[in-house]
Specification:
single chain; about 80 residues; alpha+beta; Rhinovirus 14, subunit 4; three-stranded mixed beta sheet; 2 helices; elongated
């Protein structure tokens, strides 16, 4: 290996907001993350909606139901051209 071209690596502690702690090597020390494999819905199998500042309620009030509505097809005479 060539000297002085690789970044310096540190033994690092990665902390998640859920409380899980991982020890690994990285170029940065003491990382803090918001979501990890222990609390991510893909890995846990549960689905959670994070409603920040009532966005879902605000959308529902403004536009009504969130399910799409289809209008009945118009049956009538086609205009002759």
């Amino acid at each position: 290996m060539k000297p002085d071209i690789h970044p310096k690596t540190y033994e690092t502690t990665i902390s998640c907001t859920c409380g899980t702690v991982y020890n690994t090597f990285s170029t940065k020390q003491n990382l803090k993350i918001g979501i990890c494999a222990a609390c991510h819905p893909f890995f846990t199998g549960e689905q959670r909606f994070i409603d920040t500042a009532g966005r879902i309620d605000k959308f529902s009030q403004r536009y009504g139901s969130t399910s799409p509505r289809r209008a009945a097809p118009k049956l009538g005479k086609a205009s002759a051209s």
